[in-house]
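hey so i finally got around to running the thing on that chain from the lab meeting. sorry it took forever, my laptop kept dying and i had to restart like 3 times. anyway pasting the input first so we r on the same page abt which one it is
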Amino acid sequence: MRSLKSYVGGQWVASSNRAATLYNPSTEEAIAEIAAGEVDWKQVLAYSREKGAAALQSLTFAQRGEILQAMAKTLHEGREELITLATQNGGNTRGDAKFDIDGASFTLAAYADIGAKLGDTTILVDGDPEQIGRTARFSAQHIRLPRAGVAVHINAFNFPAWGLAEKAAAALLAGMPVISKPASATALVSHRMVEMFLEKDVLPEGALSFIAGSSGDLLSHLQGQDVLSFTGSSDTAKILRSTEGVIERSVHINVEADSLNAAVLAPDVELGSETFGLFINDVVRDMTQKTGQKCTAIRRIFVPDERVDDVVAAMSERLADLVVGDPAADSNVRMGPVATETQYKDVRAGIERLAAQTDEGFGGMGEIEGRGSKDGKGYFVGPVLRVTRDAANCDALHSDEVFGPVSTVAAYSGSASDAAKLIQMGKGGLVTSLYSDDRSFFTELVPLVAAFHGRLYLGSEKMAGQSPGPGTVMPALLHGGPGRAGGGEELGGLRGMAFYQQRTALQGDKAILAAITGVK
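ok and heres what got predicted. didnt touch it at all, straight out
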C-alpha cells in the first residue's frame, strides 16, 4: 500500500502519526495511507519564504512562464498514469479524469503564455502613467510586485489535479512560492503530480511544497505578507476567516465555497431547436460529469411553466441511457461513484431533504447498483431529477447544495424579472447559464443577476457549436463568486495574479518612474 508523504523544507517527510486510509470508492478497497509527520511549520514557512520567494522573484515573468510550461508538459507526459490514479482514488471515468488532468495542464500552459507575453520584466505595470503636477514631469504610476510571503492553498476533493494547478499557476507566475494541501481523501493524484515535478526538476528550490494529511498549526504562523486560498465548504471557510492570522495580521484570504448554480430556459426557445439541444446537453452534462461533484454544476433548472414536462422528459430520456458503475470494471460506464463514504451519506441525506419539498422527475432517491460492483460495494448514487412548480416557496431548492448527480427542474413564469428573483434566492453563485435567441431577454436579465455571480454563460444558437459548457472553468475568465460562493476570485488571466501581488502607487519624476517600470 502506498504511503503518501509531505514534501516540505526541500525534503519528503515520512509520517510518524496515525495514518488515514484512502479508498477506491468503486470497490471500497484500501489503496493508500496518508498522514503528516511531526513538522515544524514555522520553519517550513521560513524555508519557502527564503528559498522559494528569492528564487522566483529573481526570475522574469517570461522565465516563470517557462517553469509553468515545463509543469504542463510534465503532466501531459504523465497523463495516462494520472488517469489511472484518478480512477482508483476518485472513481473517475476516463472522461472525468481527463477533464481534471487536462484542465490542470491547460491552465498551466495558459499562464505560461501570459508569462511569455509579459516578457523580460519583474514589475507588472497597472494602468497608464498619470500627470499629478502642473507639468508631466511630476507623474504617478501604479505597479504590482509579489508579496514577500507564501501562498498557502487548501484544495477540495473533487479536482485534485486542476485544483492544485489553477491556484499554483497564478501564484508562481506572480512570484510567490506555494504550499499546497489537497483534500486527504483524494490526494493520490496531486501527490503523484508533485513527485513528477520533482523528478523532472522543473521548479526552483522552495517554490512548491506539499502537505499530506493534517497541516497542524501551519495557519497560526501566517504573517501579513502571506496569503491563504481555500476551496471547500462554507463551514470550513468560516473557521479559516476567524484564524488569528486573518484577523490580527491581515493575511489575505480567498474563498470559493458553496454555489447553487442555475440554468434558465427563456420562453422563446422552441423544442427541438439547436438552443434547446444546447440547454439539454449542458444541464445533463453538468448533472453527471464527475458524478455531479463540480463546484460549477447546475443545481437549479428554471424553465417556463409550460415547458416543465417537456424538459423533464428530454432529460429523463438522456439519463435513462447513462451507465453507472465501476469505470475500471466496465468500459461502458459513464458515471462513477461519489468520492467517499462521507460524501455518499451527505448526498443521500441531501436528496431526502430535497424530496420532502419536491416531486420525482427521474431516478427516485438515487438507489442504484453500480455496474461491475461486487457484493454491494461502492459509493454509487444514480442521477436524481426533482421537480417543483412552486420555486419561490421551495426552501431546499435555494438553500441546500446536494453535491452529487442531483438537480431540480423548477417552473417560473417566463419573465426575466421572475427568473431574476428566483436566481437571487441562491444568494450568490459561481455561474448561471441563460439560454435564449432573444437578445432582449439577455439585455433585461443580465443586469438583474450579474452582481450575484462571478460568471454568466449566455447560450444561444450562434455559439452552440463552439461551447464547452458552463461547467468548464477557463483560465482567461474569472472563477469565483459573491455571497454564498465565498466572495473570492481566481484565474481571469492577469486578474488571477492580483491576489498574490501588492499594488503600489509610485509618484515622482517621470524619468525616474520610466527607469523603474520601463514605461516611457
